[in-house]
Amino acid sequence: MKVVKNSKKRDAVRAYIMGTDSHPTAEEIYAKVRTIFPRISLGTVYRNLNQMEESGEIKRLSFTDGPDHYDYNTSTHYHYICRKCGRIYDMPTGVKDAILKAVEAGAPGTVESHDLVFYGVCNECRNSSGNLL
Amino acid sequence: MKVVKNSKKRDAVRAYIMGTDSHPTAEEIYAKVRTIFPRISLGTVYRNLNQMEESGEIKRLSFTDGPDHYDYNTSTHYHYICRKCGRIYDMPTGVKDAILKAVEAGAPGTVESHDLVFYGVCNECRNSSGNLL
DNA sequence: ATTAATAATAGTAATGATTATTGTTTTAAT
DNA sequence: ATTAAAACAATAATCATTACTATTATTAAT
């Protein structure tokens, strides 16, 4: 069994993820952590993200386009992506039970997990006048 | 405005997708169409898939891991992926209304579309004894 | 039917995100 | 302090997909 050793770089990656609600990508995390450790490599960010995902500390979010994002919130919840600004919001949690209840009956097997993503234009984008899209 | 011209290759791609429920990948489509047009290139498959997706003929499915899949069924419906065999099933349609109703209230913007994927082990895999996973 | 314009194609190079490799540096248990 | 393993930086490799380019096929107008 492999021992996990301390790592200042991993600490910095973890600290950044835990401190933001922005669901950052590996590149964004890399850019931030580099202000503290200018010589950290992108591979180190990916390796630590994968390790933290495997240990259940964080969750990886994959969407149709673009790179993966990372989320410190590992409980089952859903996301909303604005097609103008690309921001990723958390959805309120009330939805989940309704979905699971409606689904269980008709699935072609056991349902162990599910991913649900909503797309639209967020209120902030709708209200700002200088839109490009 | 760009004119769409006839294309035997595109016809073959379309015919294969329309004739299968397996939600094939570009590579799988490529392999099949190559039995008819041995010199077709993978780029041609991708180009035609993208064109058919833009025109609304087919739908592209992106999942967390692996390549994209393509679906002739463009109406809103959900998928179930077996984590043993990887097969992609269609989910029964009753789920949708419950979800939309539960969601509309709390979203941070308009909800224009959503993607929902379920993961589990399908009954076929559960019942087969010679499993490797 | 011939021509001319342009869409479609094959073949290949390029891209973007991620993973793998390798030689060096840290960590932590003795 | 010694040592074994984990973490690292730097870089190469991989995979899915897109872009490029010279050629071929399709179509509309003559």
How would you describe the overall organization of this protein?
The structure is a homodimer of 133-residue chains. Chain A has 133 residues and is of the alpha+beta class. Chain A has two domains: 8-71, Arc Repressor Mutant, subunit A (Orthogonal Bundle), CATH 1.10.10.10; 79-129, Dna Ligase, domain 1, CATH 3.30.1490.190. Helices cover 35% and strands 16% of the residues of chain A. Chain A has five helices and five strands; from the N terminus they run αααββββαβα. In chain A, the strands form two sheets. In chain A, strands 4-3-5 form a three-stranded mixed sheet, with no helix packed on it. In chain A, strand 3 and strand 4 form a beta hairpin. In chain A, helix 1 packs across helix 2 (26-33). The interface between A and B is large, with 40 and 40 residues. Chain A binds a DNA duplex (30 and 30 nucleotides) through helix 1 and helix 3.
Helix/strand class of chain A = alpha+beta
Instruction: Give the overall shape of chain A, derived from the CA principal axes.
Output: flat
The first-level CATH class of the largest domain in chain A is given as Mainly Alpha
The main pleated sheet of chain A reads as: 3 strands, mixed
Distance separating the two termini of chain A: 51 Å
**Which oligomeric state applies?**
homodimer
What Rg of chain A do the Cα atoms give? Answer: 18 Å
Strand line-up across the major sheet of chain A: 4-3-5
- What are the low-pLDDT stretches of chain A, counting only 5+ consecutive residues below 50? 129-133
Tell me what the CATH architecture of the largest domain in chain A is. Answer: Orthogonal Bundle
Tally the structural domains of chain A. Answer: 2
The two chains with the largest interface, and their residue counts, are: A-B, 40 and 40 residues
Strand segment count of chain A: 5
Question: What's the average pLDDT of chain A?
Answer: 86
CATH fold field value of the largest domain in chain A: Arc Repressor Mutant, subunit A
At the fourth level of CATH, the homologous superfamily of the largest domain in chain A is Winged helix-like DNA-binding domain superfamily/Winged helix DNA-binding domain
- The portion of residues forming beta strands of chain A comes to 15-25%
The string of secondary-structure elements of chain A, in order, is HHHEEEEHEH
Helix content of chain A: 25-40%
